[in-house]
Specification:
13 strands, Rossmann fold, alpha/beta, 3 domains, six-stranded parallel sheet
Length: 537
């Protein structure tokens, strides 16, 4: 009888939820999430819809590692399966006795539910093969690196690398970084940036680059938020510094930290270099490059501070000694050249307006106007409103109806990403949520599936981890459901689907932006690439 109900030994997650009542399944879900789901489904979500949503939102693997989670799960395991579970775990099981489990016992319980780590079988090595670099560059990128090196190695040792979004600015810069660290041993390269996503991107990109281009073990230091490495012992490696953190330390606790480090620094990379002449940020860069042997490399897609103040833009050019290395292509428009030659996809932009989801007063608007990013509490309230969730879902379904098979969605919060994914799954759309809270095993599986050759349409809903440095050539559409006032962040999201055929991507891509009319717009995303040419040599 047991076999006829559950189909064999163990208990899959699908079988587990299939045996539960709607009331018991709702115990696993956050009350706030349930409110949104009930509203979207036009009443109390139930039956198969509820079970599909639960399988997507509930991480049984994580719950089994927590005493309270085990207690809930054990209380709901069918009686006819408890005996088998006790035999596997090797102990008498009582839902009230969920504490003090050993790792071995928890592992056996995970095995009972079929939660086993993926085992990858390495491919066979052919007798002959063509060798291609795993961290290579296109010819136009290699040309940029060749022209950068002499500018950084002599005279003022300063230059800006100017490449449009989606052309591989970070990857190109990492070749320069790796070359510097290979040439100068021991030495320190400091990477300056604003915002956690750019900082994390730098760390991940360097790890990938150095694992292929490096010559020795190195230190990697992260200096932002609560993270603070021991700078006294940091003598050979790659140090990523958040500009806000760097200035906070100078102004509060260690005013000479950059000066003390400067004797070991041989290269400073300033990401989003148009910020570098802000008084506080400029001081950090100047103190780090005090040693005449140290070079300064700026990275930007917009090598100017303003649109109208040529004096301000001139000061930026002067800070980098008037040296700017850009694409050297046989065209007046680098963007059109890259599109026409298949390096970039031709983007098609369109906007979907949602109904106002958040009542924003004058005080909130003043808060928004005074910062670079919309405050998190306003974003969270907006993203979980019925109007906004409905608009985003409508946009996703419209994109899928046009035949796109790989769609990346940038959600506004973790809850937003999970709810969107759950609803899409309930509507029989294959989708995955990837956030900072997603276990590595599940994240890797989702990304691997998204990158596969499977012809089935797949939606990857992301918050906070795929904005930068994510390589998915098959992605042909992006749905931006994350409000932002940052052109840089917006461009990075667009850049996830802008790879052209020669870069393994598509000829065209669609960029859908879901906008709440109560919030400020995104601005002009087609700012001129050559706007600041008159102030550079």
């Amino acid at each position: 009888m047991v076999g006829s109900i559950f189909g064999g030994p163990g208990l899959s997650v699908s079988q587990f939820f299939g045996a539960l009542s709607d009331r018991d399944i709702r115990r696993f879900l956050d009350p706030g999430v349930l409110v949104v789901l009930d509203t979207i489904f036009g009443g109390r979500i139930s039956g198969d819809d509820l079970r599909r949503v639960a399988r997507m939102l509930v991480d049984i693997d994580m719950l089994l590692g927590d005493a309270q989670g085990r207690r809930l799960i054990l209380s709901l395991v069918p009686d006819e399966k408890l005996v088998e579970l006790e035999g596997r775990v090797g102990r008498s099981i009582c839902s009230a006795d969920a504490d003090n489990w050993t790792e071995v016992e928890v592992g056996r319980m995970r095995d009972f539910f079929g939660l086993i780590e993926d085992r990858l079988v390495p491919p066979a090595v052919p007798s002959m093969d063509t060798i291609s670099p795993e961290y290579g560059l296109f010819e136009h990128q290699r040309n940029v690196v060749r022209r950068l090196k002499p500018l950084l190695a002599q005279d003022e040792r300063r230059a800006v690398l100017h490449l449009p979004t989606g052309v591989g600015k970070t990857r190109t810069a990492m070749h320069v970084v790796a070359d510097w660290l290979c040439t100068y041993e021991p030495s320190v390269v400091v990477w300056l940036a604003s915002g956690q996503e750019l900082l994390e991107q730098a760390v991940l990109a360097f790890k990938e680059a150095w694992s292929r281009l490096g010559t020795r073990p190195l230190q990697i230091g992260t200096m932002w938020g609560d993270q603070m490495p021991d700078l006294n012992s940091f003598s050979d490696g790659f140090l990523v510094v958040g500009l806000a953190k760097g200035w906070s330390i100078i102004s509060r606790s260690e005013p000479d930290w950059a000066l003390r480090l400067s004797s070991r620094v041989r290269l400073v990379v300033f990401d989003e270099a148009h910020q570098s002449i802000a008084k506080t940020y400029k001081q950090i860069a100047e103190e780090l490059t005090l040693d005449f042997r140290c070079a300064l490399l700026g990275l930007t897609a917009t090598p100017g501070r303003t649109w109208a103040d040529i004096d301000e833009d001139g000061r930026l050019a002067e800070f980098f000694s008037g040296n700017k290395v850009s694409l050297d292509v046989p065209s007046n428009s680098p963007i059109e050249y890259l599109i026409d030659n298949g390096f970039l996809a031709r983007p098609i932009f369109w906007t979907l307006l949602s109904k106002p989801g958040v009542n924003i007063g004058d005080e909130e608007l003043e808060r928004i106007s005074g910062v670079l990013e919309i405050p998190e509490d306003i974003v969270a309230s907006l993203s979980m409103s019925e109007q906004y969730v409905t608009a985003v879902l409508k946009g996703i379904m419209e994109v899928l109806s046009k035949g796109h098979r790989r769609v990346i969605v940038f959600a506004a919060t973790v809850d937003h990403a999970q709810v969107l994914t759950a609803i899409l799954t309930a509507r029989d759309v294959r989708s995955y949520a990837v956030t900072g809270a997603t276990p590595i095993r599940m994240r890797q599986q989702a990304i691997r599936t998204f990158k596969s050759d499977n012809e089935e349409p797949i939606v990857l809903v992301n918050f906070g981890v795929l904005t930068t440095g994510f390589d998915a050539p098959k992605a042909s559409a992006v749905v931006i459901a994350r409000p932002t006032q940052s052109l840089v962040l917006y461009s990075q999201m667009v850049g996830r689907a802008i790879r052209g055929p020669k870069a393994g991507g598509t000829e065209t891509c669609e960029i859908l932006t879901v906008v709440d009319p109560n919030l400020p717009g995104f601005g002009d995303v087609t700012e001129a690439f050559l706007n600041w040419e008159d102030v550079w040599q």
